Amino acid sequence: MALSSSFLAAFLVAAASSVSQVAHAMPGSIVMRATSNSSIPGNSSSSSPMARVCGPNTANVTCLNRYGSLLPPSYSRDPDPSIGYTGAEVPDDSSWSLVQNADFVLFDEKRGLEILGSAPKISRGIIPVLNVIHEAPVFVPGINKLFVTQDGPPGNMSMLQLDLNTDPPAVSLIETDPPIYQPTGGLYNPKDGMVYLAVHGNNGSLPNGQKQHAGIARFDPKTLKAEWLVNNYYGFNFAGPNDLTIDPVGDIWFTDTDYAYVIGVSESPKQLQLATWRYRPSTGQVQVMDTSLDYPNGIQFSRDGKTLYVADSGLESYNPVPTRGAGDFYNYPIRIQFNSTGPRNVFAWDVARKGQDGTHPVITGKRVVFQSLEGAPDGLKIAANGYLVIAGGLAAGVDITDELGNQIARIQTSHPVENIQWSGDDLKTLWLVGIGGITKVEFDLAGPDLANYYN
């Protein structure tokens, strides 16, 4: 999850016509094709167009010359994170409009076209949603349903259930038993058939007198029966677990941030460092694993379990002076400040196993592998082939890199993307969820089979 008051103000002003505009999106095809002298990496001449149309015509696909690293001297870009990559101004190269209007931008043409396949498609506005933060998308293959949470005070204990057995999906609101207040990260565990949630709501005055601390919970997607697993560290509140993953030995790793207090779904300011944690279900042990990130966010392990990836949304932080959204749409204070030079990175660590039983994890070799083109990285997933798929957070899109962080492609939406999830029998449908929107992408980059995730 990632927010900024400047972004929300700009976004909410435009929200009045969001559904119809989102449905409009971008044209499905452009007939012009590239000339032979502007390949990727291609011609290094500054006179070559920066961008060109490429790929299948089922979507707007743009290839970028030499990663866009050489622009005419007249270019400019406002560092405010609410100004996306496409908000840069390149007045002396008319091909920049292709990047601005693209559904998919390819930085590495060969690998990018492999990702897209023969008929990539992006569908916007197919599901009307509230102009709130959408998070924690979880696909349950056995029942072919996608669960998505909606965040925002005074408190939301219901989730969207998208029945993917119909097209468009049948949408309904569900509530677990007992209700779970404000999850922001989720995953399906095929080993027990349960949906696990990182829950950041912390409130002592919920509807019907219910109380809840932030922590980790799970529920049965068939019966909706829920239970809590952990809600404290030796009596200290967590600030607000943000996202989670399960490692090869069954430990649950989760990130903890104070977004819950920032947006008013927690009554408790942070009591601990913002950190990355590990919870071992078999013993109940909770252990801190890293405290070096400003705002730890999305978290995943590589397919072999030997690398841990964590996103840092540290260009945002708590501000004691509250602001409000444009027009008071949300009608609650947002306590956040923004530092355009703050962290917006994905970090990687090597993972080793030690200890008496050989299962105790030790992470070393911290290194940055990616810096966001705009906004700050949020939800993070690993594709079947090991590629990183990174939700843009503030940004209206998703970045795709290889395991070393080399940029391959971008998916561009008309709403911010907080988190992502694959669905379908072939796991080639990717759902992008965020503030005021849900987008569906169909292409050839498959998600992992969770039952055989660690290879």
> CATH superfamily membership of the largest domain, which one?
TolB, C-terminal domain
Share in β-strands: 35-45%
Shape: globular
Counting DSSP E segments of at least 2 residues, the number of strands comes to 29
Give the helix proportion (percent range): under 10%
Strand order of the largest sheet: 1-2-3-26-25-24-23
Derived from helix and strand composition plus strand pairing, the structural class reads: mainly beta
Radius of gyration: 21 Å
Query: What is the CATH first-level class name of the largest domain?
Result: Mainly Beta
Which stretches are low in confidence, meaning pLDDT under 50 for 5 or more residues running? 4-46, 327-331
Q: Provide a count of the helices.
A: 5
CATH architecture of the largest domain: 6 Propeller
Termini separation: 29 Å
Largest sheet: 7 strands, mixed
Return the average pLDDT rounded to an integer.
87
Number of domains: 2
Q: Would you give the CATH topology of the largest domain? A: Neuraminidase
Structural write-up:
The chain is mainly β. The chain has helices at residues 5-13, 18-24, 96-100, 109-116, 259-263, and strands spanning 51-53, 61-64, 104-106, 121-124, 133-140, 145-151, 159-163, 170-174, 183-189, 194-199, 215-219, 226-230, 241-246, 252-256, 275-280, 285-290, 296-301, 307-312, 316-324, 333-338, 345-354, 360-371, 380-382, 388-391, 397-401, 407-412, 419-423, 429-434, 437-442. The radius of gyration is 21 Å and the shape is globular. The model is unreliable at 4-46 and 327-331 (pLDDT under 50).
